[in-house]
Amino acid sequence: MFSALSETITKQSIAKSVNGVLRRIPAWSLYIIAVIPPVLMFLSALNGTLGVDPVKELEHEMGELGLQVLIVVLAITPLRRITGISLIKFRRALGLIGFFYIFLHLLVWLVLDVQILDQIVKDIIKRPYITIGMAGFVLMMPLAITSNNWSIRKLGPKWRNLHKLTYPALILGGVHFVWLVKGWQLEPLIYLGVIVALLAVRVFWSVAPRAKSRRAQ
Fold first, then answer.
1. Which of 41, 54, 74, 189 is deepest in the core (most CB within 10 A)?
2. pTM of the prediction?
3. CA–CA distance, 5 with 8 (Å, rounded to integer)
């Protein structure tokens, strides 16, 4: 009992210290930091240090980076509930940064990779992994557009429901990653597994109190 109490106090103390540091970091600073990775990648591509096929590598790296950031956004609530550490103030900035990276991923594919408009349309229609990726991007667009205080006030309760599109968009992004690589590779499966696990946790936390309330009645 005393061991569990001591562990709880220690966890709360750590969370309080970390949250104290996080409160002093402005959310807007993330936008400045977010510009650095794409700039470095583009410079590496121009210098010929990004691999044999720099365009494909740039396309892949931007897409993966976007998926990583969006997974962090999805993990913010579980992190707070489990550890007490809160990244809520950074959630909007991280969501927009994730969208920005995915947009760059798409832009590299459109402008530097395929380039031909007819071929782009054919690829979206005929290649399932591209269709799925494009569907995920389309779902993210209204989320990015409405990630501002004006939209929150204007939409009211509908804003929260709209932003639940994050969940299917992330699943589509994970499936897109799994499908585009050749064969069953471990890395994309891990990404998809983490996404599914985080969503499952959210569903459990949503359903469990209702089930408990019904049993109490």
1. 74
2. 0.89
3. 5
